[in-house]
Design a protein that fits this description.
Structural class: alpha/beta
Number of helices: 16
Number of strands: 27
Length: 594
């Protein structure tokens, strides 16, 4: 038996001769129980495969039994969260990553496949979404807004807000209790016009609705709200257990691919032009034709580790027109922390444009048509204005450390936009957070040493740090700083410290005493504007499908100086430092800016 001093789960399981997993009972084809209460679906089979893996690698004794206990949607995480609150102690659960924001005591494993978050819409209300297709938002009254239902314990409201962005005033998000039953009841009674959820559950919804409300609803495959990762939810206190689970997904990826095809692929091939007709009650098997795309680890740092799940319903009102897009992976192992200090507690130091920068950058990272980072707080987080305090910045850098520990294939991006001041007497550089104290700059700011140490704790194979810390808009306020301080670009000595270690890359927006300039329209800094263009593929060749460090460097080094000179009559030269081979930081999908 292997030494497992650091794994509480495995020690307890071997001591009790039992390991217990939680599974949903009514979610075919993911997990469900048949008429004899036997477990069926992908998740039960995955747990059986994991059992063999653990015993074959001597993590578990052969006499340890695997128990599968049913859990409802309202019980999600209740028996997995550590510290445990009752007598049921789960080794984990199998399901989607629709975890509530600020959830504690649990961690999400590497994903094994991905589904889309879509809208199930009442046909008579579909005109209320026309503003998305026409790109001209209507001025809807409260009574005519599209009411979109969501399960109240999920993070779907957050995903909807990100998707609709500035159009959130045109919709009303209605939180529904009691899971699937509550959702179907709300749709039947007309309490909501649409419902947002993962496509697997929506297919179940529409099957039941067709019995009582035939031809009244459809699922719009043109509106992909976000993507949901399916994996294992694990207690957060056992990092060794999390590492073993993630290694299992890598080691057994071929066997997992077989299970996915077995449980989610219809034996009949999908049709390319299905004719929408009513569903019938006679179908006893999953009603979807599934198309799978493996997105395992690829070269040059592109680490996607999962599978895509798509469904095209045959002989059902799933869509108004056929969806032929079968190549839509996400950058599943991408993690980003975006910091735009924005409003300062000391008002003269406020930099509103930095908030616009991080919000625009966030949108392109989570856009499924561009960078395709997962649209959730488990992968991408923002700090701006009152949230961008010194303690919060360090706390979220620690979150990145934890994500990298749990996922050995993580690619991490840290972006900071705000003031950067240099103390001449201390020969020390500081980043100024929201809660900086004018009378105690040293004590209330984030020193370069503390920032560097926090980044060094993030043990990812690939890390890109982008620092935009010498804003021309802040130069007037900088003149009011103590005489010992001056606002300059981050010194190269600090950059050298930041880039120490394998897979580290540091970008800065300017060099030496240069400033970082804002575009004349005041909507964005020149640097971030061109960074976003590069992430959208402006620096790529037509045949390329990923954005690499080299693409960003080449494009920024060309465009930023040109725009600074043309638009502002100033000099601004980005700087790049890396101790790494070239690697991918995002996918490159669909449309490109002209």
């Amino acid at each position: 038996m292997k030494t497992l001093a650091h794994s509480r789960i495995l020690q307890e399981s071997n001591g009790n001769n039992k390991m217990t997993w939680g599974l949903r009972t009514g979610s075919p084809p993911i997990s469900f129980q048949d008429n004899l209460a036997h477990w069926q679906g992908f998740c039960p089979s995955l747990i059986d495969l994991l059992d063999k893996y653990l015993k074959g690698n001597q993590f578990l004794q052969n006499n340890v039994s695997i128990d599968k206990t049913p859990i409802s949607i309202n019980e999600r995480f209740q028996h997995t969260r550590f510290p445990y609150q009752d007598d049921i102690h789960l080794a984990g659960e199998c399901g989607s990553d629709s975890v509530r924001q600020n959830e504690t005591g649990i961690r999400f494993s590497q994903a094994f496949f991905i589904t889309k978050t879509l809208l199930l819409i009442r046909k008579s209300q579909s005109n209320k979404l026309s503003f998305l297709k026409n790109h001209t938002p209507p001025n809807l009254s409260n009574n005519s807004k599209l009411k979109i239902g969501v399960i109240d314990t999920s993070i779907t409201p957050y995903r909807l807000q990100n998707f609709f962005n500035y159009l959130t005033s045109e919709i009303e998000i209605v939180k529904i209790k009691d899971g699937k039953a509550g959702a179907i009841d709300a749709l039947k009674q007309g309490k909501v016009d649409a419902f947002a959820n993962d496509e697997i559950l929506l297919k179940e919804f529409i099957e039941e609705l067709e019995i009582v409300k035939p031809n009244e609803f459809y699922i719009d495959l043109d509106l992909v709200i976000s993507y949901e990762s399916y994996g294992l939810i694990l207690p957060s206190d056992d990092p060794e257990w999390i590492k073993i689970i993630n290694k299992f997904f890598i080691d057994k990826k071929d066997d997992i691919a077989v299970l996915i095809k077995k449980h989610t692929t219809d034996p009949n091939p999908p049709v390319t032009n299905p004719t929408p007709t009513p569903i019938t009650k006679s179908s006893g098997r999953p009603i979807s034709n599934i198309i799978l795309l493996m997105i395992i680890v690829a070269g040059s740092g592109l680490t996607l580790g999962g599978y895509m799940y798509w469904g095209r319903r045959q002989n059902t009102p799933l869509e108004t027109k056929p969806n032929l897009d079968t190549k839509t992976p996400i950058f599943a192992n991408g993690y980003a922390l975006l910091i735009g200090v924005g409003k300062s507690a000391h008002q003269p130091l406020s930099l509103p444009v930095t908030v616009k920068d991080v919000q625009a950058l966030h949108q392109v990272l989570i856009d499924p048509n561009f960078c395709a980072y997962p649209n959730d707080t488990q992968h991408v987080r923002l700090l701006h204005d009152e949230e961008a305090t010194r303690s919060k910045i360090l706390e979220q850098l620690n979150w990145l450390k934890e994500q990298a520990q749990a996922n050995p294939e993580a690619t991490v991006v840290v972006y900071y936009s705000g003031h950067g001041w240099f103390s001449k007497s201390q020969n020390r550089y500081y980043l100024l957070p929201h809660d900086v104290e004018p009378l105690d700059f040293e004590g209330s700011s984030l020193s370069a040493e503390d920032f560097t140490n926090a980044l060094r704790q993030i043990k990812s194979k690939r890390l890109l740090a982008i620092i935009d810390s010498c804003h021309a808009a802040g130069m007037a306020s900088a003149k009011k700083a103590p005489s010992d301080f001056e606002e300059i670009s981050i010194p190269k000595s600090v950059i050298n410290d930041l880039s120490q270690g394998k897979g580290r890359v540091v970008f800065t927006s300017s060099q030496g005493e240069q400033s970082s300039w804002i575009r004349p329209d005041k909507q964005m800094s020149i640097y971030t504007y061109h960074l976003i263009e590069a992430l959208q593929g402006k620096g790529n060749q037509a045949h390329e499908d990923v954005v690499k460090i080299s693409h960003l460097m080449n494009y920024l080094s060309d465009k930023v100086p040109e725009s600074a000179s043309t638009l502002c009559k100033k000099t601004q030269t980005p700087y790049f430092h890396f101790e790494s081979e070239d690697f991918s930081v995002a996918l490159l999908k669909g449309r490109r800016p002209k």
